Amino acid sequence: MTTTVHFSELATLVGRPLGATDWLEITQERINTFAEATDDPQWIHVDPERAATGPFGTTIAHGYLTLSLIVPLFVDLLDVEGVTTKLNYGLNKVRFPSPVKVGSRIRLVATIVDVKAVGGGGAEIAWSGTVEVEGSDKPACVAEPVYRFYP
Question: pTM here?
Fold first, then answer.
C-alpha cells in the first residue's frame, strides 16, 4: 500500500514503517539484461549449466541488480506530492547478506529514518530498506538510501 504525503509533511514520517511492497520475481531474463547493461557476464549470473554446479546450485542476481530494484519498489511505498524534482542522492550504507537465486521473489520493507532541510528549499530523506527473499530468514540486501525532494 502506498503512503501519500505532501512535501510539507515529510517530517511526520520519521520512524514510521512504510510497510512492504508486493513480491517481484527475479527471472533469468532480468539477470541477463542487467549483466549485459553493466558488462558483468560472470558465469554465476548468466550460465545456468555452470551455476548448477556452483555454490548456490543455480544462477543468482547481481547484488547491484537487487540494489537497483529498491528504486522502483520504494516508489510503490511512498508518493510525495508537491514536488517537481526527486533525486537519488546516494547511500549511507549497503550490505548483501544473502544471494537472490533465479526464480526467487523479493520485496522491499522500508522505514523513514531522517528528514532534514537542504539548500534550495528541498528536503533530504534517509530511509532504511530491507530486501526480503520469500521463504528465506536472511535478507538479500539491507541499505540506507538517501533521496532529495524539491518543491
Answer: 0.92
Count of other CB atoms within 10 angstroms of residue 39: 6
Residue 122 domain flag: yes
State the Cα–Cα distance between residues 1 and 78, nearest whole angstrom: 9
Domain-located, residue 14: yes
Domain count, the chain: 1
Q: What is the pLDDT along the chain (151 residues), one digit of tens a residue?
A: 899 999 999 999 999 999 999 999 999 999 999 999 999 999 999 999 999 999 999 999 999 999 999 999 999 999 999 999 999 999 999 999 999 999 999 999 999 999 999 999 999 999 999 999 999 999 999 999 999 999 9
**Contacts for 79 with CB less than 8 Å, ≥ 6 apart:** 2, 3, 4, 5
Containing structural domain, residue 117: 3-26+61-150
